[in-house]
Design goal:
8-stranded parallel β-barrel, about 30% helix, globular
Length: about 400
């Protein structure tokens, strides 16, 4: 039985649109991440999962430890449900959440807040000033891991932290050490230009060579700079963890002695954008099904909805992929529609009104902002239906 038949059989009682997760694919992807991590723990990036029960399942597997959250309110909510060792990977400007953190001794033990500037400390200090018997706030420094060359004329990576050099990191660590009520616990640096950029895009040979060259040079530069940064910060304060990498760079990042743990999130669902890496091959695990509602022509069907673009620079790569049956593609002048989506190709000839077309999202967790429930498929059976963050009435952005 092929995957399409399994999914159709498992969900025969469900009315599309709906989202589903293949648990066998999740397990295979998780095992491969653990293999690539070579013994170092993997912190699970919650933004790529966005389902509390599914996060619990993943963290119960060997090799995974801690959560990388994306907002402080999310971290507080997860902590209230028993999650531990939560790193908020992005700075917060939420005064109410900071006050709640400082006023909750258990949450303050489990949550670490990221900063990249003394201004973040000033903001947090003002936010918690009125909290009685406030708890100490754990701090993580975010370091710029982007690749800069040719005197700054070339840059690859994301625009995140302004802290780049060892002396800058040491100065910020010292600023934390001088503030009563704050304690430096960790350091993170995300090399997006390696972890989040596929090095094997189809039909783009010259571009792929350029990406590989950039990534090799970036990795060589970063291993030295990150090591010097960690050494400089450790002279100021002890570090419980040094986090780096992402799904696309796990086996590279764990080679660095300075790194104590890696992060991964997209690797569990293996969305479309992660098809284009030479170093690993994942199994598509998160899907959504849309019903056929029209047949405008023999080689064309129209499905309900489908306009679920991913964040990032707009373009075809951000659209969901018509996945099963194989061989369907978007009509070039319509793409993925808000209310309906025409699909063309020979595979459309065998589809009838009410049949399902299975799609993959371009990114991982953003799928969960469209659906309240994930139906968990094992074999050809739905074994559980679990809420997404949205399904629990939680929006953290």
């Amino acid at each position: 039985m092929d995957d399409r038949q399994r999914y159709d059989r498992a969900t025969a009682a469900l009315e599309p649109p709906f989202a589903a997760v293949d648990l066998a694919a999740i397990r295979a992807n998780a095992a491969d991440l653990v293999r690539r991590a070579a013994g170092k723990p993997i912190r699970v990036a919650s933004k790529s999962v966005r389902s509390r029960p599914l996060l619990e399942r993943i963290l119960a597997m060997d090799g995974f430890r801690g959560v990388m959250a994306y907002t402080l309110p999310e971290a507080l909510w997860l902590a209230s449900h028993g999650f531990t060792d939560i790193l908020v990977a992005y700075p917060t400007a939420d005064r109410h959440a900071l006050a709640a953190l400082a006023g909750d001794a258990r949450a303050a033990r489990e949550i670490t807040v990221t900063i990249d500037s003394p201004a973040h400390l000033d903001f947090a200090e003002a936010a918690v000033a009125g909290v009685p018997s406030r708890s100490e706030i754990r701090i993580c420094l975010d370091i710029d891991a982007s690749y800069v060359a040719f005197g700054g004329r070339f840059r690859a990576g994301v625009l995140r932290s302004p802290v780049r050099e060892p002396e800058e990191a040491a100065d910020l660590a010292a600023a934390v050490a001088k503030r009563p009520g704050f304690r430096l616990a960790g350091l993170m640096a995300y090399e997006a230009q390696i972890a989040g950029v596929g090095d094997d895009p189809p039909g783009r040979t010259l571009y792929a060579r350029a990406v590989r060259l950039m990534q090799a040079r970036s990795a060589r530069e970063l291993v030295l700079r990150r090591g010097r940064i960690v050494n400089a910060v450790r002279r100021v304060a002890d570090l419980e963890f040094v986090n780096g990498g992402g799904t696309g760079s796990v086996e590279r990042t764990v080679r660095e002695k300075a790194v104590t743990e890696v992060a991964a999130g997209s690797g569990f669902f293996h969305p479309r954008l992660f098809d284009f890496y030479r170093r690993f091959t994942g199994r598509p695990a998160a899907l959504f099904a849309l019903p056929v509602v029209r047949r405008p022509a023999p080689d064309t069907v129209t499905v309900l909805g489908g306009g679920y673009p991913a964040s990032g620079s707009a373009g075809p790569s951000r659209l969901p992929q018509p996945y099963l049956p194989a061989g369907l593609r978007y009509a070039p002048d319509e793409g993925a529609g808000e209310v309906q989506t025409p699909l063309i190709g020979q595979a459309a000839e065998d589809l009838r009104i009410g049949d399902r077309v299975w799609f993959r999202h371009a990114k991982a967790g953003e799928l969960c902002e469209r659906f309240d429930t994930l139906h968990l498929i094992d074999g050809d059976t739905v074994v559980a239906s679990v809420p997404t963050y949205r399904g629990e009435g939680r929006t953290f952005l």
